[in-house]
Design goal:
The structure holds 3 protein chains of 3 kinds. Chain A is of the alpha/beta class. Among the domains of chain A are: 248-340, no CATH class; 353-443 and 524-673, Rossmann fold (3-Layer(aba) Sandwich). Chain A is built from 22 helices and 23 strands. An 8-stranded mixed sheet of chain A has the order 5-6-7-3-8-9-11-10, with helices on both faces. An 8-stranded mixed sheet of chain A has the order 17-18-19-14-20-21-23-22, sandwiched between helices. The longest helix of chain A has 18 residues, at 191-208. Chain A is globular, with a radius of gyration of 26 Å. Chain B has a single domain, classed as Orthogonal Bundle (MetI-like fold). Chain B has helices spanning 2-25, 29-46, 48-51, 83-119, 121-136, 139-150, 154-162, 166-181, 184-191, 196-232, 244-251, 260-287. In chain B, helix 4 (83-119) runs antiparallel to helix 5 (121-136), helix 6 packs antiparallel against helix 7 (154-162) and helix 11 packs antiparallel against helix 12 (260-287). Chain B starts with a helix and ends in an 8-residue tail after the last helix. Chain C is an all-alpha fold. Chain C has a domain at 93-278: Orthogonal Bundle (MetI-like fold). Chain C is 79% helix and 0% strand. Chain C is built from 14 helices and no strands. In chain C, helix 5 packs across helix 9, helix 7 packs across helix 11 (224-262) and helix 11 crosses helix 12. The chains are: A alpha/beta, B mainly alpha, C mainly alpha. Chains in contact: A-B, A-C, B-C. At the B-C interface, helix 5, helix 6, helix 10, helix 11 and helix 12 of B face helix 1, helix 7, helix 11, helix 12 and helix 13 of C.
Chain lengths: 674, 295, 320
């Protein structure tokens, strides 16, 4: 069968002030009709630029330097067409459609979504505006947008992120393209929405025969949905084979490293993550030899003396770009495995609680009009109860808008709860005034999600980390202060010599280390970690996870770990709390929760997370969730999950199920387990 | 020893930062030219008495309307005063009024803006409503009404021209403060129990400073334009003092026999304002970390 | 939507009330005795008292304010101290003249400015961009009155093809004469407007060009022309619209200089005379009227904004 798309030797650069920097170097890939392939890589690996080059959609400074792109092996290199030529415009959208990462900004805010879909149809199918409108509504129905006719005249900002991405898909598919490129299309979405969308794309691919390229950094997604995978690193494709083969027998050291670094949902309790040390080289600093050399665990001297390795076949249908022979890799296997033998740091969970929350309620007022009159209120948190033992890690999971962050802010007393108690070592801090809170402030600290916005850009790293020391008057005198700051830097694996630098001079991972050092400065007992690794690249995430575990065992800290990545939460947490629309649904030990989820919501949530293992993935049921993530503003009257639950009875819509503790300590709020 | 090293390290970094700032700022030739222009105007204004041999206000009835010559490079006006000398002294008036007005507006505006953001509630409402009211009166009307009340000496004029621009500073600093207030790093400090006053001064003001500097540099030019306009219509700087606006107004009567008298001061205003604006753009670009290649 | 408009109108009323209070009390601080302004310097005590009581100056300031405000609501701003006739009669024709010039120059500068702005944004970095941007930057630095004098010198005095002063309506002097009279003042007034619309359009278009949805539009295979006119332009012009009100206010104020150069009997020239003559009632009326006019302009701008940008009415409808 001939290839639908054939990219060969693609080389793309970006012009800076005085030079042309190569971003994508000699990339070749092919795609067959009806196939789904994955293009995986970390940020800056050039995966998006590869796709943008394919349809000549590069921004002003980008330039395609070499290579060819052919459709259906017809011998015509579409890169020969000018970016604005009619032929290229016909291919863009008409033959190859693309959806992007940011659902919030990718649609025109001042045009109705209907008009935007209609525009595409009229352009590529040549229908008149009446027929185009009909087809647009059909397409909206195809991607499951409720009330398509009425919502045709709505604007993008009236839809949720998941819905907007559906609209994008409808718009792209409306022109009947042969190829759909999904460039990190589900990254910004909740895991359940992500599951819905990818399942839909797969169904559509089977139904319509459209070929799909999934561009992502998430290995789980490609493991579940792709037939073949291309792994990119520093502008090159370093490995290419079928999905099953790649996960069964990864051959390139980078791929192997990645798979050792990411936590999985089906991990054993004692699994150690082996991070890939260092950072990928920036495009301007890429060496002439293998770009992975500096971070490679298998590297040999010869690697730095030879040219960049070319992609070659090492097993049938399995290509890698690496100079190492299987023999040398085997030789070093022992050394790498010795790393794997390392134990996870021991930790001690005590029986006493350091935090106990009972019946916590937080409501917000709704204001309206000129005078900002209060017209109503809604409960962002309802009846939250849980405990945190000393030395324990409690994972907090739930979709966006479920109240995770509100809960964290209540615990930190950035918000004052309306009811309930927050017992910090038996002192209820829920109702204390600002002044009364002072002595408790240092006991509980926070690490933020975004390592860029959470550090004051105009303060040096040293003064950012040392500020809590001064505010809590934990040091007397300059010398002690400097000493403590140095110590904090060393604790999080940074050199005290970097104290005088400003945040922008650090990499993302280092900045998150600074955030952790700042949180440690006040000698806290509890640390609230709000998505601390979700902004970091996969290979860096493991470094931070390991650091957090090490600190916990050394200092006896208790963590509340908020994340949307369930695999990470499961890896790091001892117990997990599942939230839905501001209520606790289930609390259980992490293994117990994964092996025997009780609440229907938890089950659906777990099934949406891909496993990074195509063989286990096969035959694993996907429990689709009905509908969109609702808002706390219109929470169902009874069980908040009742309107999306397959097991919901009439009683569920009337009464709120209370939290019930099972024999093994598993807590669940559902009438199924009465 | 270690301490000393650290000190040196710190100094180096500060120097490095300044160097980077200057490097980006002057990376464009236009900015260098503009900066030189501004410096020349400032030097002329300061050393006016030394540079020119003439007194700007001494009249010589026998030397009226002389054409440009070696003794009077740009000729003389209706009272026989040297035009070039008066232009140089005029730079003094324009620069003093421009800079003074901007400083006054900035100080008051930043103070009120921070108050609005810091106290919130009724203080915020009052400050913001008042500044809205002030903004909805055309700037020139405010200036005219105030001149009628306050007067039109150089310092009066600076105050008069400063007042209509205050709301701009208030809005900007308040907006900055409110958005920075919800940023993660301010949250982080607040979680450590820092009071809002400390947060305002230590974390919010330093981060809001660069847009203020940019706004100030842009305001100097427009203030100078406004001053020359007011002087031109005869309610700004009063007649005997040499200012560019009054010179144009005076020269308008002698356009046919001594056109340079009206044309030259206008060229001066335009040149100074252009230089200031280009310099302001340069500073803006240099302060923008995106353009400095830091992010 | 209707709620939003009502809200804006209510805000405006508050603003105008504040301005009225401020104007009245501040102008009463003007350091000259209105009695002498009206009656001249040589007054007997009886004459002085007569004028003093007729102006109601014996009453406390707040009472005077309410009297003044009540009359102002009816359109009666008192009698001019200098011209000795009712203020509304005095300013009526002059306000019309000034507004006529302001609106005409808006009509000229908006389309030209936007056109230039679009050209420069689309041809970014090319010759057309460099030249237009440079000209716009320079002309926004030129003093209006000086441009007027240069024009007057060249076309009025040297070439003698245009009259150098005065203004009258076309139905009195004929359209040709009228055009000859207004062409130079209009150029003066519009140049700055064109420059600032050009700059604003350029920067906001460039801002939009970088947005994700423009990439989406291109990825659909739309022709570049359609991308520019359908997707970039509408988004890019929204911030330009917000400038309309501001600019009109600026032009009403700035017309003073141009009126002075070309001896046009407008609001600006009147204001100047009144300030020199300490004519309180007229000053108060003029400040209030210009404020009201600019407030109306701001509201109209906002309305236009709501129409063009669906985001506004959406957010104001949804609770907030």
């Amino acid at each position: 069968m001939s290839n639908l798309l054939n990219i060969s030797g693609l080389k793309t650069g970006f012009r800076t002030e005085n030079q042309l920097i190569t971003i994508v170097d000699n990339v070749s890939l092919h795609l067959k009709r009806g196939e789904i392939i994955g293009l995986v890589g970390e940020s800056g690996s050039g995966k998006s630029v590869t796709m943008m080059s394919t349809i000549q959609l590069l921004s002003g400074s980008g330039k395609i330097m070499d290579g060819s792109v052919e459709l259906e092996d017809n011998g015509i290199n579409i890169l020969d067409y000018k970016p604005n030529s009619p032929q290229m415009q016909e291919i863009r959208g008409g033959r190859i459609g693309m959806i992007f990462q940011e659902p919030m900004t990718s649609l025109n805010p001042v045009m109705t979504i209907g008009a935007q879909i209609q525009e595409t149809i009229m352009l590529h199918l040549g229908l008149n505006s009446e027929d185009a409108k009909k087809r647009a509504i059909e397409m909206m129905k195809l991607v499951n947008i409720p009330d398509a006719e009425e919502r045709y005249n709505n604007y993008a900002q009236q839809f949720s992120g998941g819905m907007r991405q559906r609209i994008m898909i409808a718009m792209v598919l409306a022109a009947k393209p042969d190829i759909l490129i999904a460039d990190e299309a589900t990254t910004a979405l909740d895991v359940t929405t992500q599951g819905q969308l990818l399942e839909m794309i797969r169904d559509l691919s089977v139904k319509t025969g459209i070929a799909v390229i999934i561009v992502t950094h998430n290995l789980g997604i490609v493991a579940r949905y792709a037939d073949r995978i291309y792994v990119m690193y520093a502008g090159n494709i370093v490995e290419h084979t079928t999905t099953k083969e790649l996960f069964r027998d990864p051959k390139h050291p980078y791929t192997r490293g990645l798979l050792r670094a990411i936590p999985r949902l089906n991990d054993q309790k004692d699994r150690v993550l082996i991070p890939i040390d260092g950072l990928p080289p920036t495009p301007a600093e890429r060496p002439a030899y293998c770009p992975f050399y500096e971070r490679c665990l298998y590297r040999g001297e010869e690697c730095s003396q030879r040219n960049k390795p070319e992609l070659h076949e090492v097993a049938p249908g399995h290509f890698i770009a690496c100079h190492l022979t299987p023999e040398t890799v085997d030789e070093r296997k022992g050394y790498v495995e010795s790393l794997m033998q390392k134990k996870r740091p021991e930790k001690e969970i005590q029986d006493s609680n350091c935090l106990e929350v009972n019946g916590l309620v937080k409501s917000f007022d709704i204001h309206k009009g000129i005078m900002q009159r209060k017209v109503g209120s809604f409960n962002a948190l309802e009846d939250i109860s849980f405990n945190l033992r000393k030395g324990e890690t409690l994972g907090l999971v739930g979709e966006s808008g479920c109240g995770k962050t509100t809960l964290a802010r209540c615990l930190l007393r950035m918000y004052k709860p309306n009811a309930g108690e927050i017992k910090l070592f038996d002192h209820d801090i829920a109702a204390l005034t600002k002044r009364e809170l002072r002595p408790y402030r240092n006991l509980i600290s926070m690490v933020f999600q975004d390592p860029f916005s959470s550090l004051d850009p105009r303060q040096t790293a040293g003064s950012i980390v040392g500020e809590p020391l001064k505010l809590h008057k934990l040091v007397s005198g300059q010398e002690e202060y400097e000493g403590k700051v140095d110590h904090l830097f060393e604790m999080v694996g940074l050199s005290p010599l970097q104290k005088g630098r400003y945040p922008h001079e650090f990499s993302g991972g280092q900045r998150q280390r600074l955030g952790i050092a700042r949180a440690l400065a006040s000698n806290p007992e509890i640390m609230i970690l709000d998505e601390p690794i979700s902004a970091l690249d996969v290979s860096i995430q493991a470094q931070i996870i390991n650091l957090l575990e090490e600190l916990q065992s050394r200092l006896g800290l208790s963590y509340i770990f908020i994340a949307h990545d369930l695999a990470v939460v499961k890896h790091i947490s001892d117990r997990i709390l599942v939230m839905y629309l501001g209520r606790v649904m289930e609390i259980a030990d992490s293994d117990e929760l994964y092996d025997h989820p009780l609440h229907p919501y938890t089950r659906a949530l777990l099934s949406s997370v891909p496993l990074v293992d195509p063989e286990q993935e096969e035959g694993r049921p996907f429990i689709p969730l009905k509908g969109e993530v609702p808002s706390v503003l219109n929470r169902p009257k009874g069980c908040p999950f009742s309107d999306r639950c397959d097991h919901a009875s009439e009683r569920c819509t009337r009464e709120i199920p209370p939290l019930k503790t099972m024999d093994n300590g598993h807590i669940v709020a559902c009438f199924l387990y009465e | 020893m270690n301490e000393m090293n650290k000190e040196i390290c710190k100094k180096d970094q500060r120097r490095e930062k300044a160097r980077k700032f200057i490097k980006t700022m002057f990376s464009r030739k236009m900015v260098i030219v503009a900066a030189t222009g501004v410096v020349i105007f400032i030097l002329l204004a300061i050393f006016a008495g030394i540079i020119t041999p003439y007194n700007p206000n001494t009249t010589s009835p026998y030397e009226t309307f002389q054409k440009p010559s070696a003794t009077h490079w740009l000729g003389t006006d209706d009272y026989g005063r040297d035009i070039l000398t008066r232009l140089i002294y005029g730079a003094r008036v324009s620069l003093i009024v421009g800079v003074l007005a901007v400083v006054i507006a900035c100080v008051i505006g930043v103070f009120l803006g921070l108050c609005a953001a810091y106290f919130g509630g009724i203080v915020d409402t009052v400050i913001m409503r008042l500044s809205e009211a002030l903004m909805s009166i055309p700037r020139i009307m405010v200036a005219l009404a105030l001149i009628a009340i306050i007067g039109s000496s150089i310092s009066d004029l600076a105050i008069v021209l400063a007042i209509p621009t205050i709301p701009g500073y208030i809005r900007m600093i308040r907006g900055q403060a409110l958005s920075l207030k919800t940023s993660d790093y301010v949250r982080a400090v607040e979680l450590q129990g820092a009071n809002s006053f400390y947060v305002m001064l230590k974390h919010i003001l330093p981060n809001a400073i660069s847009p203020i500097i940019v706004m100030m540099t842009q305001q100097v030019g427009s203030t100078i334009l406004m001053e020359s306009g007011l002087s031109y219509v005869g309610i700004g700087i009063s007649i005997p003092i040499a200012s560019w606006g009054t010179m144009v107004s005076n020269g308008k009567n002698y356009l046919l026999n001594q056109p340079i008298l009206a044309i030259a001061p206008g060229v001066c205003v335009a040149l100074l304002v252009i230089c200031l604006n280009v310099l302001g753009d340069g500073i803006r670009d240099a302060l923008d970390p995106r353009l400095r290649g830091e992010i | 939507m209707a709620k939003y408009i009502l809200k804006r109108i209510a805000q405006t009323v508050v603003v105008i009330i504040i301005v009225a209070i401020a104007t009245f009390f501040l102008t009463s601080l003007i350091p000259s005795d209105p009695v002498y302004v009206i009656g001249g310097e040589d007054l007997t005590q009886e004459q002085y008292d007569a004028i003093y009581y007729s102006l109601g100056l014996d009453k406390p300031l707040p009472v005077r304010f309410f009297n003044w405000a009540a009359n102002a609501l009816k359109g009666d701003f008192g009698t001019s101290y200098v011209y000795h006739q009712p203020v509304w009669k005095l300013i009526g024709s002059r306000v019309t003249t000034t507004l006529y010039f302001s609106f005409l120059s808006m009509l000229i500068s908006i389309p030209i400015g936007i056109l230039f702005g679009m050209i420069t944004a689309v041809k970014r970095g090319k010759k057309a961009d460099t030249i237009i941007t440079l000209l716009a930057n320079i002309s926004s630095c030129l003093p209006q009155f000086w441009i007027g004098i240069c024009l007057l010198f060249i076309f009025g005095l040297k070439m003698r093809i245009l009259p150098t002063y005065g203004f009258d309506w076309p139905w009195k002097i004929g359209l040709g004469e009228h055009l000859k009279l207004i062409i130079m003042p209009l150029i003066c007034l519009s140049l700055g407007g064109i420059a600032s619309f050009t700059r604003q359009t350029r920067s906001s278009m460039l801002e939009v060009i970088r947005q994700d949805f423009v990439r989406t539009a291109r990825s659909k295979g739309l022709k570049e022309k359609k991308v520019i006119f359908k997707h970039i332009m509408r988004n890019g012009l929204i911030p330009v619209i917000t400038m309309f009100g501001n600019r009109l206010a600026f032009m009403i104020g700035g017309s003073m200089f141009v009126e002075n150069v070309f001896a046009i009997p407008g609001m600006g020239t009147l204001m100047l005379k009144c300030i020199n003559g300490s004519d309180l009632p007229t000053i108060q009326a003029l400040v209030l009227i210009t404020t009201a006019v600019s407030c109306v302009a701001y509201i109209l701008t906002d309305l236009l904004y709501v129409i063009v940008d669906p985001r506004i009415s959406l957010t104001s409808d949804q609770s907030n």
